[in-house]
Amino acid sequence: MALTNRTRPIPRYGTAAGTGTLATLVLVGVCGSPAYVEWAGSATDATSAAGWFLRLLAWPAWSFDTAEPVAANLRAVLLVVLAAVFLWLLPASQVARVPGSASQFFTGWAAYALAGGLASLLAAFAAADPSMLLALQSAGTGATYGFLAGWIIGTASLGGRA
Question: How many structural domains are present in the chain?
């Protein structure tokens, strides 16, 4: 008896957006955790490039402490959500002239930079004393973080299919 209903094999790898989102969740979860933020602040040298970068990775700091400002936790949540949205909306590898690894890498990197800036901009309006100046300064800081840490998400996006 012949089998006529063949199923496709289950793919071994997820999509580039999925792997990038997972990397974002891990990066924000680990490097934004109170333990990492405390360690980076006390055990690294802010005058060295490595110490500065390790402190930069602690930027999306979050906390379970209710005394902490809501804006910091909102910024971390928005960073993950917006990175996932931008990774899904920027399918450069599907429309690129030369599809492949480079377009996946730069798409992941760009999505994280955009997510960092926009998350910081939106979260600034939840601060205790919101202002447009504070929001724009925060957006600049978030975009800087996203640009300098986005290569991690770009690299993680390389593992997925378009």
Answer: 1
